[in-house]
Request: fold
Amino acid sequence: MRKLLIALLLLNAVCLLAIYQPLSVLAGSGSGGGPVDACEGDPTKYALDTNGDKVVDLSDFVGGLSWFFSGGEAPRICLDTTGLEASLAQAEEDRDTFEMYFEMCAEDFGLLQDDLFDCAEEVGSLQDLLGGCAEEVELLEADLVEVEGERDTAQAALVVAEGERDAAQAALVAAEADLALPAPPSGFTFVERNAQGYDEYTHDSSGIRFVRLPGRSFEMGSPEGETGRIDSYEAVHTVWLTPFLIAKYEVKQSEYEGVMTGNTAGLDATPSTATGANLPVEQVSWDDLHLADGFLARTGLVLPSEAQWEYACRAGTSGPYAGTGVLDDMGWYDGNSGNTTHDSPPPRALAAGSGPLSLSGRCGFRTGPAAGRPTAPAESRRYSG
Reply:
């Protein structure tokens, strides 16, 4: 019970302090209700001096409790109010200023909100634009891949085209070289350009068919170890030739007889053992060719040189025989000829593609130094293999 009473007294004291502070401003001093005089000294020192004895003690607290419970004369509370109204007016002015600033801030905040909404809309628009740009970038990247593929294809086609151009230029150079060959000597008539691209002519006085070959280099001779090679053959070496005309086939008996008939040297116009108009002429001696009214003098021709003859027979090949490289395919010899000559040209050599000439096999040939005139191979003896 005693503890409860103490707690109630402390609660009353707190209430008394809460109530006395506002009352001290409005209430009069004592029962007269007059204004509260200013406190002497420091007002906070005597703020709880309710009975005016300038000492805050238990009597002030008891007096307060007595007034609170029983009424009567209000306790005298000392409080200095000097400058309170000015302070209150300043506080109200500060409040008004604060309210004005608050309204301005609210207005600015509203404007900021509007700006923020506008920015949000612009951000949304920019996001849409960025999305569109991303799609455009993807399309451009796809186009770039396609263009790069087309570029690579075009570059590959360009490489092929450049190769074809170079080949065409080389062919053109070769063609121009062929076209630049000198015109055939007088006494020849152009016939045709054959399948190999060589021009063919007919010798007017003898009827012999000639082929014009371009001047180029080739490897002449027989390499060591070649099948059928004998020690007397020349070693391989490079030879350069100027353009020349050479008979396409061996001289036929009909052609030789036509030239030599009526010669004044008493030479036989039909010296061959095996006779036939299209058979190659054979048994022709050196005198038959070189005497004053011999075959070469009557035709104005010369014998081909060894280099010219080999170049013509090789037809761009390097083996012992042109075409297939097999003698049975390319000419007549003692192994397939039946020990006799045959019509010129041989059908098998033409079918195998022997090149511009067909001179392999059959008979032995006479050759001589080139003298700058058209040449013709002339038969001298039967080929014995």
The two ends are 161 Å apart (CA to CA). The first strand starts at residue 188 and ends at 193.
